[in-house]
């Protein structure tokens, strides 16, 4: 089977929600094993090949840090249509996700967003840098896609040069309130917290029109600031008047093409049917069929546990677990 | 072959030991040969499993195996009294519990174990599970019989009592946890939390020597993104501040703390505050200065003073943490 045909079947799965995850995962593993010499060596070192891998759980998951050191692509990376970088202080400390086409990513994003987060006929206020300002940010690209697809009049990005444009956002929120039109707020948890801080200082708050919704991302991952989910939801209600039921937490990463969502105060993240999540040694491992041209199985540095209809994120693995002998809190069991 | 140890002690004959040296020497050659297929496959796999660059991995491999050539193994045998003991008894199998992504750190211990004639069981870290298997596979190519003495194992509760000796790498907390798991009769040889430092004299920092110094520093700083216990976490600069090092520090993922000093006593006083965790000290300066420095460092418990640029290449004779593994493994058991 050619990659085009396999890609078509996976894309159909993403459009219709109907497909044989297991069969597609094994076929995609064979393809990625054949086309990516580094991944193949990594699999062979574990004596796992398409000949003896028979379940999706056996597909070797690459540590997420490998995206920093390796060009994990099934094609010459010079032909990449997009390269998404994770955040990081230096170029060498950033992950690089090479995408031959943005088509699969976009299809997966749209299907997932439509199911879990969509609020149409609303102005989309985005608290993230625009794709123009951050061309290597998968988050900016994603939010740009959904803004363009579903954002009504007045939709815009409200971060410039890393700073939330508080006054402009306040004006936009005020005019939405006056018009009685619901808004969709999207952005990083940190950006929302920064905005709430400014609102508190200026002693202002908003009552977004009924039907307004908020989607934030990245809350658990930042080292700079972390608030409990309940506290965040309380701040959203206090400053924006958006109820808990209309708040969605998105979990994604630049190394994956699909996203997971949790609603309200629920800690349970759910993903689309072309993804699967496993927990190995306490770390979340995701298999994402939309990662057709890179590596579909990824071991994250996020701790978590599986529940019946998804997974619960428990923050980052202890930093020391990720380090070498100078700081290693090596888990020797398991 | 069973991975479960038997408990009768073992004595290795001199002739057997030289055979092991020859095999391990050939193994080092294999790993230092960039065109060897096993090595190339391992480098590719390690790029993925460790998150380190190819350059970093190749340097780490070279550093580890260039210290384990046949010639250096013979030097090690000659220098280490434990190898001179006739009829020295060692446990038949030794379990090594390995640390994370400083993926070569356990090699000297495994080599020492094999040289003593014992079998070597390796429990890899879940963080970097591949290198032990790759090493065993390369050993199979060189000496199938010797390779049979190496087993890569997963932790089992029965390990708490089935080995006479366990060698472990990790944090002090990890070692304490492991100690609590093991039965009292099991001897635990632990390599815990360590950090290293570099001292740069005024002479070495002089503009004339600086290019060579920066190049040497890079060899010490780059491997393992400063996570290794031999990576200098602190650099002491005589009469200068760290901006002098910006040309190399700017390109690194992790940078050391830079401190200015005016007298060696200031450095010693500062290092004292990190004891007992200081492992090695790299030095750039004159031989006389190094000798004087060692006189102050040795009483502190520092186990190694070497030239900058050589920190990541400890010789087999280095007593990591002050421990001679060969001596420890040949110590009679008393309960």
Mind describing the biggest β-sheet of chain B? 5 strands, parallel
Low-confidence stretches of chain A: 320-334
Kindly report the spatial arrangement of strands forming the biggest sheet of chain B: 3-2-1-4-5
Mean pLDDT rating of chain B: 90
How many β-strand stretches of chain B?
Answer: 10
Please state the structural category of chain A: alpha/beta
Give the overall form of chain A: elongated
The side-by-side strand order for the widest beta sheet of chain A comes to: 6-5-4-7-8-9-10
General form of chain B: globular
* Tally of contiguous helical segments of chain A: 9
Sketch the topology of chain A as an H/E string, one letter per element: HHHEHEEHEHEEHEHEHEEEEEEE
Q: Tell me the series of helices and strands of chain B, N- to C-terminal.
A: HHHHHEHEHHEHEHEEHHEHEHEHEH
Helix content of chain A: 25-40%
Largest sheet data of chain A: 7 strands, mixed
Identify the most extensive interface between protein chains.
A-B, 37 and 53 residues
Question: Assembly type of the shown chains?
Answer: heterodimer
Q: Helix count of chain B?
A: 16
Alpha-carbon Rg of chain A, integer? 20 Å
- How much helicity do the residues of chain B have? 40-55%
Strand content of chain A: 15-25%
Task: State the low-pLDDT regions of chain B, or none.
Answer: 1-7
């Amino acid at each position: 089977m050619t990659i085009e045909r396999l890609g078509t079947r996976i894309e159909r799965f993403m459009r219709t929600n109907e497909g044989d995850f297991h069969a597609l995962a094994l076929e995609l593993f064979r393809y990625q094993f054949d086309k990516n010499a580094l991944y193949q060596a990594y699999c062979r070192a574990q004596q796992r090949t398409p000949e003896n891998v028979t379940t999706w759980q056996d597909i070797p998951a690459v540590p997420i840090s490998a995206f920093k050191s390796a060009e994990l692509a099934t094609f010459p990376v010079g032909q990449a249509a997009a390269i998404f970088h994770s955040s990081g202080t230096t170029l060498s400390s950033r992950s690089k996700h090479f995408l031959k086409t943005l088509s699969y990513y976009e299809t997966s994003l749209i299907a997932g967003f439509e199911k879990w987060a969509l609020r149409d006929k609303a102005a989309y206020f985005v608290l993230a840098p625009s794709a123009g300002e951050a061309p290597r940010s998968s988050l900016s690209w994603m939010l740009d896609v959904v803004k363009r697809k579903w954002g009504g009049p007045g939709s815009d990005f409200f971060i410039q040069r890393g700073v939330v444009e508080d006054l402009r956002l306040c004006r936009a929120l005020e005019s939405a309130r006056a018009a009685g039109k619901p808004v969709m707020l999207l952005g990083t948890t940190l950006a929302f917290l920064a905005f709430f801080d400014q609102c508190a200082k200026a002693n202002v708050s908003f009552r977004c029109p009924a039907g307004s919704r908020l989607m934030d991302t990245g809350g658990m991952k930042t080292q700079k600031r972390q608030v409990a989910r309940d506290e965040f939801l309380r701040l959203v209600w206090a400053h924006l008047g958006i109820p808990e039921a209309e708040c969605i937490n998105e979990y994604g990463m630049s190394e994956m093409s699909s996203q997971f969502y949790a609603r309200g105060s629920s800690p349970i993240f759910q993903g689309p049917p072309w993804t699967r999540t496993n927990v190995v040694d306490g770390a979340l491992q995701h298999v994402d069929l939309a990662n057709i041209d890179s590596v579909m199985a990824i071991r994250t540095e996020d701790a978590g546990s599986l529940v019946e209809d998804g997974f619960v994120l428990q923050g980052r693995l202890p930093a020391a677990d990720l380090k070498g002998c100078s700081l290693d809190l090596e888990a020797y069991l398991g | 072959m069973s991975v479960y140890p038997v408990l009768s002690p073992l004595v290795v004959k001199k002739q057997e030991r030289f055979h092991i040296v020859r095999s391990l020497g050939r193994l080092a050659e294999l790993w230092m040969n960039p065109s060897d297929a096993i090595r190339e496959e391992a480098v590719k796999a390690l790029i993925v499993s460790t998150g380190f660059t190819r350059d970093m991995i190749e340097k780490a491999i070279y550093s580890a195996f260039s210290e384990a050539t046949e010639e250096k193994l013979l030097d090690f045998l000659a220098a280490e009294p434990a190898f001179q003991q006739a009829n020295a008894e060692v446990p038949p199998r030794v379990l090594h519990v390995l640390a994370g992504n400083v993926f070569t750190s356990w090699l000297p211990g495994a080599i020492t174990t094999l040289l003593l004639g014992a079998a070597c069981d390796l429990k890899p870290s879940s963080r970097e599970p591949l290198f032990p298997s790759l090493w065993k596979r390369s050993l199979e190519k060189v000496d199938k019989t010797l390779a049979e003495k190496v087993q890569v194992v997963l932790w089992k509760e029965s390990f708490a009592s089935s080995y006479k000796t366990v060698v472990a790498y990790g944090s002090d907390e990890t070692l304490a946890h492991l100690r609590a798991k093991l039965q009292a009769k099991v001897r635990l040889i632990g390599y815990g939390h360590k950090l290293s430092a570099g001292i740069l004299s005024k002479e070495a920092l002089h503009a004339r020597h600086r290019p060579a110094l920066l190049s040497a520093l890079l060899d010490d700083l780059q491997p393992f993104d400063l996570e290794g216990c031999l990576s200098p976490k602190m650099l002491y600069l005589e009469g200068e501040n760290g901006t002098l090092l910006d040309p190399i520090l700017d390109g690194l993922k992790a940078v050391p703390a830079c401190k200015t000093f005016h007298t060696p006593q200031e450095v010693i006083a500062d290092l004292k505050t990190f004891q007992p965790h200081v492992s090695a000290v790299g030095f750039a300066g004159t031989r006389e200065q190094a000798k004087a420095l060692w006189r102050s460092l040795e009483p502190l418990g520092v186990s190694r003073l070497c030239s900058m640029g050589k920190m990541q290449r400890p010789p087999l004779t280095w007593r990591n943490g002050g421990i001679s593994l060969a001596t420890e493994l040949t110590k009679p058991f008393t309960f």
